[in-house]
Design a protein that fits this description.
single chain, mainly alpha, 434 Repressor (Amino-terminal Domain), two-stranded antiparallel sheet, about 65% helix, elongated, Lambda_DNA-bd_dom_sf, Cro/C1-type_HTH
């Protein structure tokens, strides 16, 4: 992790304090990171396909604002919706579980 100081503490020290104060903090951060990763993947998949949000919306038979919400706030997206988006951009969804 970073050695950057934040208010006199390194990030690692600050992060350890947050984890000690809230047992769910580390898990919550990891969930947020995965949500950001999904958000980036959705956007990148559309760009690689050379499609606009309007084009994806047309393929999904939804409006453009729905596609925008998916790309910007994918945190509670249903698997069926993710699959529909993937098909619209010419991709497929693969899910892996890790220990």
């Amino acid at each position: 992790m970073s050695k950057t100081k934040r208010l006199g503490k390194s990030f690692d020290e600050w992060y350890a304090e947050q984890c000690a104060a809230d047992p769910d903090f580390d898990t919550d951060v990891k969930v947020l990171v995965e949500e950001l990763r999904l958000q980036a993947q959705l956007y990148e998949a559309r760009k690689v396909a050379g499609l606009t949000q309007d084009q994806v919306a047309e393929r999904m038979q939804v409006n453009r604002s729905f596609v925008s919400r998916l790309e910007n706030h994918p945190e509670n997206m249903k698997l069926a919706t993710l699959n529909k988006y993937a098909r619209a951009v010419g991709m497929k969804v693969e899910i892996e579980l890790h220990a």
